[in-house]
Amino acid sequence: MRARDPEALAGFYDRYAELVYGLAWRLLGERARAEDATSEVFLKVHRAIERLDPTRDPAPWLVTITTNVCRDLWRSGAYRMSRRAADVDDPAVAATISSGRNDPEQDAIATERERLVQAALLELPEPLRTSIVLHDYQGYDHRQVAEVLHIAHDAARKRYSRALAALERKLRGRL
Amino acid sequence: MSEREREEMTASLHAVREAVRARSHPRPEPAFRARLREEFRTGRFSPRRFRPAPWIQRPQAWLPLAAGVLLAAGLVADRGPDWQVIGAHGDGRVLVGEASFGAGDVPALAAALRRGGRIRTQGSLTLELAASGVAAASFGPDCDVRLSAPPGRFLGRRLTCDLAGGDAYFTTGRDFRGAALEVTTPDVRARALGTSFAVLRHASGSCVCVMEGRVRVATIGDPAGEAVEVPQGMRRVVGTDRSGETLPILDDSVHRLHEQRAAALGWLER
Predict the structure, then answer these.
(1) CA distance B230 to chain A (A)
(2) ipTM at complex level
(3) Residues B269, B257: contact at Cβ < 8 Å?
(4) Which residues pair with B180 in a beta bridge?
(5) Which three-class secondary structure state does DSSP give residue B89?
(6) Distances A127 to A23, A70, A74, B51 between C-alpha atoms, Å
(7) Do B48 and A31 touch (CB under 8 A)?
(8) Distance (Å, rounded) from C-alpha B201 to C-alpha B208?
(9) Taking the complete model, does pTM exceed 0.80, yes or no?
(10) Across the A/B interface, how many CB contacts are shorter than 8 Å?
(11) pLDDT tens, residue by residue, A120-167
(12) Is 2.60.120.1440 the CATH number for B81-268?
């Protein structure tokens, strides 16, 4: 990897591309922006590959880079978020939303539920949204979230509680 | 929050968390995935559509500047009025620091005195100053005084005057409310609780004459001496031997304070 061997790089990409893209999509709520962010993350990784510690799991490093890139994207003038609902009409996303029962009505409900959750999530302030995405989507515990966000463990826990309460207020009576 | 509400809230939070966790895991489109894979593998990336905002466009970059601007704006907003020269009567000169001014040189004198400083009157000259709406001060002949800037509007609400010698007269205006005025001589420290008083410092000692309101007078260098509150119409005389007594105010001081108040009235009611 550190010697930029093409096959090693391809293997790395195959292993982590979905992690980066999924996280970016959850944070940004849109396919085009998630693709931009993913491209940016892998460009940064390529440039900083010599800093990669082969003895450690690169996932937390990638999550940190992705979170920072999404934050930059969020703040950049050209990509100012419109905070609109997630693009669940996107075939790539819609195809992944299924009740698993081969039931169009259940699928419609699941799609609507997905749209509501994603829209409410995108309405949260960036720090709260990141906290929910890392904890509930990425599956990180509060200590890992604290490390990614460079905040104290207690602060990460409290931020998550606030984020969940804020999301609950937005979704109250709608789920 | 009642127990029932708490339970409902917990159930509701649980439902939201489950809804978040149940969301689908979006996957990149195959074409995008393949293109980026090739770029990453070869190190030849296509031109970036997104460039991170330069540091100057990031909010953190502006925070120190914004804080500085706010601080500067606060200081400007807090700044009280300047001292204005409303009169210089008699023959003689006024020294502000080391600069010397004649009685007729009011604009230059006013510019030098704007924020106070060390003032010495020479000859028979009397100098009258006012800070719009806040206070007026008058310094008689052969006065040696160090006067502070008028009090700020919100912070630093304090006006101090160190009187080494001569006669000084003070009257406060309506905007002075809540500020502190302290006049110190080698013998006494007078803290104004009222609106119109004089502090006279001569070789025999100091005298604080109160025409209106109250002034708390402490004898300097008196270890047991507590401040004496001098009511209006009275004066506190403290000799160089630190002996002190409270007596009725003399007509001359009343007259001078009336004169000073009349001269400064227009300024104090602004």
Answers:
(1) 58
(2) 0.80
(3) no
(4) B158
(5) strand
(6) 14, 11, 12, 21
(7) no
(8) 9
(9) no
(10) 129
(11) 888 898 899 999 999 988 888 999 999 888 899 999 999 999 999 999
(12) yes
